[in-house]
Amino acid sequence: MFLSEYASYIGTVGATLTTVSFVPQVIHSYRTRDLSGVSLSMYSIFTLGVGLWLVYGLLKQDWPLIVANSITFCLATIVIVLKVQQLLKK
Amino acid sequence: MFLSEYASYIGTVGATLTTVSFVPQVIHSYRTRDLSGVSLSMYSIFTLGVGLWLVYGLLKQDWPLIVANSITFCLATIVIVLKVQQLLKK
C-alpha cells in the first residue's frame, strides 16, 4: 500500500515534468526563432502520439491524462508552427 | 469491453509514437551537430521526468512503461550529450 502510493507520487511528478518541459522549448523557439536544430519529423510523430494519448484519456475518462496531454499537445503544436514558419521563410 | 480494448490499442500506438519520435531528433542532431534551436532546459526537465516514469514503471513492474521509458531516456540523453558537446565547443 505504501509502495503503491509512493509510486503514484513519483509517476505524477514524472508526468508533470515531461509536460512542463516543453515550456522552455516553446519560449526558446519563440524568442530566438532558431529552429534549425529542431527535428520536424520528431515533433510531428510526437504530437501525433500525444494526440492519441489524449484520445485514450478521453475514452478512459482519465482526467490527469487528458489535462497533461492537452497541454503537451498545444505546446508541441506551437513548436511545429514555429518550425514550419521558419521553413517557409527559407 | 470493446471500447476498453480499442482504447488500449490507441494508447499503445500513442506510447509507441511518442517513444519512436525521438529517433529522428537524435539522427538529425547527430548528423548536423546543429543543436542551437534545441532547448537544454527542455531536455533536462524532460529526461528527469522520463527517469521518474521509469522508476514508477519499475515499482509497478509495468513492462510496457519500463521498455518505453528506458528507450526514451536513452534517446533524450543522447540529445543532451550532443547539446552539451556543442555548448562546450563555443
What characteristics describe this protein?
homodimer, 90 residues, mainly alpha, Monooxygenase, 0% strand
* Structure class of chain A: mainly alpha
Oligomerization state: homodimer
Highest-level CATH class of chain A:
Mainly Alpha
Task: Tell me the count of domains of chain A.
Answer: 1
Topology of this protein?
The structure is a homodimer of 90-residue chains.
Chain A: H1 2-20, H2 22-32, H3 40-60, H4 63-89
3D structure, described in words:
- The first copy, chain A, starts with a helix and ends with a helix.
- Chain A has one domain (2-89): Monooxygenase.
- The first copy, chain A, is mostly helical and 90 residues long.
- In chain A, helix 1 packs parallel to helix 4 (63-89).
- The mean pLDDT of chain A is 92.
- Helices cover 87% and strands 0% of the residues of chain A.
- Chain A contains 4 helices and no strands.
- The A-B interface holds A 3, 6-8, 10-11, 13-25, 27-29, 32, 34-39, 41-46, 48-53, 55-56, 59-60 and B 3, 6-8, 10-11, 13-25, 27-29, 32, 34-39, 41-46, 48-53, 55-56, 59-60.
Summarize the structure.
2 copies of one chain form a homodimer. The first copy, chain A, has 90 residues and is mainly α.
